[in-house]
Amino acid sequence: EWDRWLLMGLIGTAVGMLGFLMHQIIDSLIKLKWDLVENYLQVSKRNGTWSMCADVVIYLSTGQDGNIHMTWLCALGSGLAMVVLSSGSVLFFCPAGSPSGLPEIIGYLNGTSIQHLFNIKTFLGTFISCVLAVASGLFCGPEGPMIHLGALLGCGLSQLQSDTLGVHLPIFTRFRNSADKRSFITAGAGAGIASVFRAPIGGLLFTLEEVSSFWDIRLAWQTFFCCLMATFTTDLLSSSLYGFVYRGHFGFFEAEKRIIFWNLLDMNVLAFVPTILLGMLGGLLGALFVSLNIKINKLRMQFFNSIPKLSLRKTSKLLETVLILVISCVPLVASLGSGRNFLALEVGCIFSFPCSSEQGSAAALLVENGKRGITYLFKRGTHEEFGYTSLCTALAFYFILSCWTAGSAVASGLVIPMLYTGALYGRIIGLILVSIFGVQTNKYGAWIDPGLFAAIGAASFFSGVSRLTISLTVIMVSMLS
Question: Rounded to whole angstroms, how far apart are CA atoms 326 and 209?
Answer without folding.
Answer: 37
